[in-house]
C-alpha cells in the first residue's frame, strides 16, 4: 500500500481534546494522522504536530476537502488554507470527503481540481472517501485509477461492504476503514469477545486486526492514551481462518453514517 496501514483518526475531536489525542498518539508511536476540513480541528492537529518534535518527514498527514470547496476554482485555495492551519507546506494525502450528488459540481471537475492541487505540490497523493462504485468509476474516469491512493469508507464487522470492497480490489484501489469499531458497538459483541479471550486480546484489537488482515488501512481514534497504545497492538495480532470466518458472519449492513445530501446511493 502507498498509505500507512495504521493511523489515528480525529473525527469529533475538538479543542484541547484534539491536541491531546494527537500528541498522545504521536508519543506512543503513531505516525499517520487523519483529519478533515469539516472536523474543524486542523489547527489543533497542526499544533500537536508542532509541539511533538516529530520531524514532518516522518509523518503521514491526511485531510479531506469539504463540499463547498469542490469547484475547480475553490479546491486548491481551500487546501492552502488547510495547510496553513496544519502548519505544513504539504499534506501526504487529500481526499474528497463525500460524493455530495446534486451539489452542482460533477465528480470529474472535483477530481481534476484535486489532481491539479497535487501537481502544484500541495498534496503528495489524492483519493476519495465514501464513494460507492458508480462515483468511484467517475473518479477513475477523471484522473485514472493509479492516481487514487485510497477510498476511505465506513467498514466494520457489522458493515463489511462486500460489493464495494470487491470492486476496489479489482481496480487496485486500497481501502481505508473508518468507524471500524462501529461507535464501540462491536466491542460488546459476544463473538468478538470470545475471539478476544482466545487471543488474550481486547475486542478493539480483534476488530482492528480483522480489518488489517483483509488488507485495509485503519484509523481508530481515542481520547485515552492507554487505548491509543492498546489499539496499536492490533498490528501484532494474527487471527486464525476460523476467527475470520466467525467475524464474517456478523455482517448486518450496520451502517452508522449516511448523511442526507452527502451520501450517494450505496451498493
From TrEMBL:
Domain NADP-dependent oxidoreductase: 8-250
Annotated positions binding substrate: 97
The keyword Zinc-finger is assigned to this record: no
GO biological process: methylglyoxal catabolic process
Positions bearing the site annotation: Lowers pKa of active site Tyr: 64
Active site: 39
Gene Ontology terms for molecular function: methylglyoxal reductase (NADPH) (acetol producing) activity
Reaction(s) catalysed by this chain's protein: hydroxyacetone + NADP(+) = methylglyoxal + NADPH + H(+)
Keywords recorded for this protein, A-Z: NADP, Oxidoreductase
A Pfam family it matches: Aldo_ket_red
InterPro entries: AKR, Aldo/ket_reductase_CS, NAD(P)_OxRdtase_dom_sf, NADP_OxRdtase_dom
Membrane-spanning parts: none
E.C. designation(s): 1.1.1.346
Family assignment from sequence similarity: Belongs to the aldo/keto reductase family.
Protein name as annotated: 2,5-diketo-D-gluconic acid reductase B
Taxonomic lineage of the native organism: Bacteria, Pseudomonadati, Pseudomonadota, Betaproteobacteria, Burkholderiales
Gene: dkgB_1
Amino acid at each position: 500500500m502507498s498509505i500507512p496501514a495504521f493511523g489515528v483518526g480525529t473525527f469529533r475531536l475538538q479543542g484541547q481534546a484534539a491536541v491531546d489525542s494527537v500528541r498522545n498518539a504521536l508519543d506512543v508511536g503513531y505516525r499517520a494522522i487523519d483529519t478533515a476540513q469539516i472536523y474543524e480541528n486542523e489547527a489543533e492537529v497542526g499544533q500537536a504536530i508542532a509541539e511533538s518534535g516529530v520531524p514532518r518527514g516522518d509523518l503521514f498527514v491526511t485531510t479531506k476537502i469539504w463540499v463547498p470547496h469542490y469547484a475547480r476554482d475553490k479546491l486548491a485555495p481551500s487546501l492552502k488554507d488547510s495547510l496553513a492551519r496544519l502548519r505544513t507546506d504539504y499534506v501526504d494525502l487529500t481526499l474528497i470527503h463525500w460524493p455530495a450528488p446534486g451539489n452542482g459540481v460533477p465528480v470529474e471537475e472535483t477530481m481534476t481540481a484535486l489532481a491539479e492541487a497535487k501537481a502544484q505540490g500541495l498534496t503528495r497523493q489524492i483519493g476519495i472517501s465514501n464513494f460507492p462504485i458508480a462515483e468511484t468509476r467517475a473518479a477513475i474516469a477523471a484522473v485514472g485509477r493509479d492516481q487514487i491512493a485510497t477510498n476511505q469508507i465506513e467498514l466494520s464487522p457489522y458493515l463489511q461492504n462486500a460489493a464495494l470492497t470487491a470492486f476496489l480490489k479489482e481496480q487496485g484501489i486500497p481501502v481505508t476503514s473508518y468507524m471500524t469499531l462501529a461507535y464501540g458497538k462491536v466491542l460488546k459483541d459476544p463473538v468478538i469477545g470470545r475471539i478476544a479471550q482466545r487471543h488474550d486480546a481486547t475486542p478493539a484489537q480483534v476488530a482492528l486486526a480483522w480489518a488489517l488482515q483483509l488488507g485495509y488501512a485503519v484509523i481508530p481514534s481515542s481520547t485515552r492514551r492507554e487505548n491509543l497504545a492498546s489499539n496499536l497492538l492490533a498490528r501484532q495480532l494474527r487471527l486464525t481462518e476460523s476467527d475470520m470466518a466467525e467475524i464474517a458472519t456478523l455482517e448486518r449492513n450496520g451502517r452508522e453514517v449516511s448523511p442526507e445530501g452527502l451520501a450517494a446511493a450505496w451498493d
